[in-house]
Amino acid sequence: MRGSRLRGDPAPRSFRWRSRVLLALLALAGAALLWRAVDLQLVDHSFLARQGDARFSRVLQIAAHRGTITDRYGEPLAVSTPVDSIWVNPGELALADEQIPRLAGALGLDREELARRVTSNLDREFLYLARGRQPAEAAEIKALGIPGVYTSREYRRYYPAGEVVGHLLGFTNVDDAGQEGLELAFEHWLAGEAGAKRVIQDRYGRIVEDVESIRPARPGRDLVLSIDLRIQYLAYRELKAAVREQRARAGSIVVLDVTTGEVLAMVNQPAFNPNDREQIQAADYRNRAATDIFEPGSSIKPFWVAAALAAGKYDSRSVIDTSPGFFKIGVKIFEDEHNFGAIDIATVLAKSSNVGMAHIALALAPQQVWTTLTRLGFGEVTSSGYPGESAGLLPAYSQWRPIGIVTMSHGYGLSVTPLQLAHAYATVGSLGVVRPVSFLAAEGEVAGTRVLEEPTCHELLAMLESVVAAEGTGKLAAIPGYRVSGKTGTAWKATAGGYSTDRYMAVFGGVAPATAPRLAAVVVIDEPSAGQHRGGQVSAPVFSRVVGGALRLLAVAPDEPVRAPEELPANATPDTLRTAALQ
User: Fold this and answer.
1) Cβ neighbours of residue 344 under 8 Å, at least 6 residues apart?
2) Which distant-in-sequence residues (6+ apart) come within 8 Å of 235 by Cβ?
3) What is the dihedral of CA 525, 529, 532, 536, to 10 degrees?
4) Exposed end of the chain (fewer CB within 10 Å): N or C?
5) Cα 117 to Cα 217: distance, rounded to the nearest angstrom
6) Are the C-beta atoms of 550 and 234 separated by less than 8 Å?
7) Per DSSP, what are the bridge partners of residue 267?
8) What is the CATH code of the structural domain delimited by 229-275+286-582?
9) Is 260 within 8 Å of 435 (Cβ atoms)?
10) To the nearest 5 percent, what fractions of the chain are helix, strand and coil?
11) What is the SS3 assignment for 221?
12) Domain boundaries, the chain
């Protein structure tokens, strides 16, 4: 019975069937796992690797600092200092939104505004919260351990001399790229090239491992300017004092090295501090010495005389009859302060005789004068490369009419920049050789092009010395121990429909020492309103102090004997000292 029951029991057969199904399922699961492993390792490997890298691997930018700008002696004028910027991954920070008030407090931001910025940029992986923070401050924020908050190293420009070099250098933006002045002009030279590297970071943004260097950082190249910071400080101090004392609207000074064409100093008032970005306004940061044009008044007369000497029409012995003290052409009358009678050309310049200049100008062919003025650089930008430099205005000689010729010989009807005018005086000082204006320190001798003959320049320099003599209009430009050649200029400012009779440009331009010129300078004071307005009263004393100080700083030997102190009266005044130096 038992054997019969065992033989007829279906249980063993059912057990075998279930075991086969189970084995098949296990085999199928194993095959699926094997296929999935193959799929992950071979088919989807690159995708998964990218996903893993996206979570832990980062390509970080390696900041490259901007090149340093120095004066000709290595004094730093612009340097880049390291700063840190704080940025977030909005998606990561949103997952820890309870930390947003804490982060806002650390950054000094409004918590609601910060929350709005984060939630409205969830589709982005990068969002700046603060730029240019001190590294210590950024480290404190990073130490809070808030997910999605990161820092990156950047650089910020710092100008040790502040507003003394503000107009000259300009400034950079938040990304350390040049925006104005020489920072913009030499952007290609100063700007560095950022590098990149791949790193592994943990969930808190800490670098675990440097994987590879993708591109090394290339720092910007240093720039050595022609500027002498000592002379720049001196010019800044004297111009600021003069503008304040004369209650003037503005002012500019340019100092050039006659022998090389280098710009040794260039300052303007009002000035601005490039370190204080919040107070920078467009009206303040333009470099008036290179960008603003003005009618130069009588300071242009020496170059008309140069054209007359070059044409052979006149020489130092020529006499011009200025009687009866006025000159009429058409309906226009040009007058002198007094009837100077018959005078030589040196006296025409010394007394700034409008009548004498009218006779000289009308005796010349327009093309001759235009050619001379053009060769001296008027009507064209200089070779300085300064951004926004103006070319001034010199009408084509075909448009000149007699009344216009006389007007231009007095410094009206044409416009110049202070830099152009200083360059023209430097050309006369270099005895007729025009050299390129440069903001870069020269290496060795600088070649030039001859535009005036040496005898012409010698004659003109001797004539211009009479302007600074005791009886000349520019006697306050005298420098004890040095002979000075220069010219004053006082011009009415143009207004709608004509010229203002109570707003002036006061100008003085010249070179020193007159026997072997080393420096050329132009001083422009815009709208002096303290009671004096003539170039000989307002600008000439500034020229004396700036150029005199610069010559001593450069150790230029005096070319005029200075009387010993015991030879001077005990009650000698500054005017007495100036007169004594000229005797």
Assistant:
1) 316, 317, 318, 319, 320
2) 253, 255, 265, 266, 267, 546
3) 10
4) N
5) 32
6) yes
7) 253
8) 3.40.710.10
9) yes
10) 40, 25, 35
11) coil
12) 59-224, 229-275+286-582
Check: CB of residue 212 under 8 Å from CB of residue 196.
Answer: no
Q: How far apart are CA 71 and CA 65, in angstroms?
A: 19
Task: Please tell me whether the peptide bond between 561 and the residue prior to it is cis, using omega within 30 degrees of 0.
Answer: no
E strand map for 478-569:
485-495, 498-512, 519-526
Alpha-carbon 341 to chain mean position: 48
Q: Tell me how far the alpha carbon of residue 158 is from its chain's centroid.
A: 14
pLDDT confidence bin for 576, thresholds 50/70/90: low
Three-class DSSP category at 443 = coil
Residue with tokens 């010729």: 405
Q: How far is CA 433 from CA 272, 401, 461, in A?
A: 36, 30, 14
Around 141, how many Cα atoms within 13 Å sit in the side-chain half-sphere? 27
pLDDT: is 118 or 474 the higher one? Answer: 474
Pairing of strands 69-70, 223-224: parallel
- 73: three-class secondary structure by DSSP: coil
DSSP tally for the chain: helices H, then strands E: 23, 19
The rounded distance, in Å, linking the Cα atoms of 371 and 394 is 11
Tokens encoding 40: 């992950």
How many alpha carbons fall within 13 Å on the CB side of residue 415? Answer: 14
In this structure, of 212-216, 221-225, 264-268, 461-465, the range with the lowest mean pLDDT score is 212-216
Distance CA 496, CA 174 (A): 41
DSSP-derived secondary structure for 339-380: ---EEEHHHHHHTT-HHHHHHHHHTS-HHHHHHHHHHTTTTS
Please confirm whether the linkage preceding 324 is cis (ω < 30° from 0).
yes
Query: Quick one: DSSP state of residue 490?
Result: E
pLDDT bin (cut points 50, 70, 90) of residue 422 is very high
* 231 CB-near residues (< 8 Å, 6+ apart): 255, 264, 265, 546, 549, 550, 553
Share of the chain above pLDDT 90, in %: 59
Structure tokens at 432: 């007729």
Confidence (pTM): 0.82
According to DSSP, the residues that pair with 524 across neighbouring strands are 252, 507
What's the token pair of residue 231? 């002379």
| Encoded tokens for 134 | 């001190």
User: Which residues, in sequence order, are CB contacts of 520 under 8 Å at separation 6+?
Assistant: 255, 256, 258, 422, 423, 425, 426, 429, 509, 510, 511
Q: What is the DSSP string of 159-216?
A: -TTGGGSHHHH--B-TTS-B-SHHHHHTHHHH--B-EEEEEEE-TTS-EEEEEEEEE-
Q: ω before 402 within 30° of 0 (cis)?
A: no
CB of 135 closer than 8 Å to CB of 84: yes
Angle (CA) 423-357-334 rounded to 5° is 120
C-beta separation of 396 from 379 below 8 A: no
**Architecture of the domain made up of 59-224:** Alpha-Beta Complex (3.90)
Distance CA 432, CA 455 (A): 9
Active site residues: 298
The answer, yes or no, to whether residue 461 has pLDDT greater than 50, is yes
Cα–Cα distance for residue pair 425/389, rounded to 1 Å: 18
